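Appendix C: a fully annotated inverse folding record. The material below is reproduced so that readers can follow the format used throughout the book. The structure is listed first as tokens, followed by the designed sequence.
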């Protein structure tokens, strides 16, 4: 009986951890700092320091206080920035290379010869910052934090607060009603990156339209992680 009870407890714990992991995955959503970071990095050919990026985002009203304790606030700001940078690095590859070093953050139009080596070498650090469980916050806090950042970014780029009709949103995403959650999120990133106004062939109006479509579709694409208001 003892063996059976231990087996049941282990199974229950494994199920609990698995559920927590799925919930955290759904809670993280899409880091809205990806897009303003792309703007900042494209605006200068010189490298940035991570704290300079944080200061610039705060000036633009896109970086908020994340914890009442100064030490934790600093860590969480850094985590959020590094998470967005590594996400953007993966999105830009293989056409461009985003160098992610604390004191040397820069986009290279021509991929350096050692980019593959650097990407492999930084694998452990990249995995750390892409794992939201290292943020040291509950699922609800992560949701609320990203929702707050997304709302600020909407105001920053002038996205219409009125939700787009779902059918129109799918048309903007070049998808139909059969699109899976994964396909929706993949298409969002593809189109946002394609039309971002700081890309060579970007278009500010198309980018805003894609953002508005994402605002309508993201609740479905993130498995209900966010609740949107009509």
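Designed amino acids, in order:
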């Amino acid at each position: 009986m003892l063996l059976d009870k231990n087996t049941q407890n282990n199974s229950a714990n494994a199920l609990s951890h698995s559920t927590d992991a799925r919930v955290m995955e759904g809670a993280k959503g899409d880091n809205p700092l990806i897009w303003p970071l792309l703007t900042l990095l494209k605006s200068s050919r010189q490298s940035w320091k991570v704290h300079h990026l944080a200061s610039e985002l705060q000036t633009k009203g896109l970086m908020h206080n994340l914890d009442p304790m100064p030490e934790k606030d600093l860590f969480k700001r850094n985590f959020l920035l590094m998470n967005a940078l590594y996400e953007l690095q993966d999105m830009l590859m293989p056409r461009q290379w985003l160098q992610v070093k604390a004191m040397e953050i820069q986009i290279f139009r021509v991929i350096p010869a050692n980019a593959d080596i650097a990407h492999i070498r930084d694998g452990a650090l990249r995995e750390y910052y892409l794992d939201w469980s290292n943020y040291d916050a509950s699922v609800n806090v992560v949701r609320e934090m990203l929702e707050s950042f997304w709302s600020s970014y909407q105001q920053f780029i002038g996205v219409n607060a009125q939700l787009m009709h779902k059918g129109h949103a799918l048309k903007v995403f070049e998808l139909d009603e059969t699109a899976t959650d994964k396909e929706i999120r993949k298409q969002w990133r593809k189109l946002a990156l394609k039309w971002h106004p700081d890309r060579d062939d970007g278009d500010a109006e198309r980018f805003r339209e894609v953002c508005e479509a994402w605002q309508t579709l993201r609740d479905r694409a993130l498995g209900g992680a966010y609740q949107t208001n009509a």
